[in-house]
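I wish you would study the pair of lines that follows with an eye to the fold:

===
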Amino acid sequence: MNIVAGFKRLTQDYQRGFFVFMLGLSVFFIGLALFYMSVRHMELNPLLAEIMVLIGLVLLATGLIVAAIGYISLMVHRWQRIFKNNK
C-alpha cells in the first residue's frame, strides 16, 4: 500500500484517525510504564531490567510515531473541513 494514499485515506476518516492517535498514545504509556518499572528490577536482576528498558524505549518510540501520525491526520482533517466551509 502506498504511504501517501494510506495517509489520505486516514485524513478522510475522523474516527480512524482518532483511533490511531489513541492507539499510539496507549502504546507510548505502556512503554513508559515498562521503562519506569525496570528500576524496581535493577537490583534483583540487572539483565531483566535492561531488557525491560530496551522494550520500553522501543514501545515509547513506536507509540510516539503512531500518535504523531494520528494527530497530524486529525489536524489535516480539521483544516480540510475549515477550508471546505470557507469556499
Notes: The two ends are 32 Å apart (CA to CA). DSSP finds three helices and no strands in the chain. The mean pLDDT is 88. The CA atoms of residues 8 and 16 lie 12 Å apart.
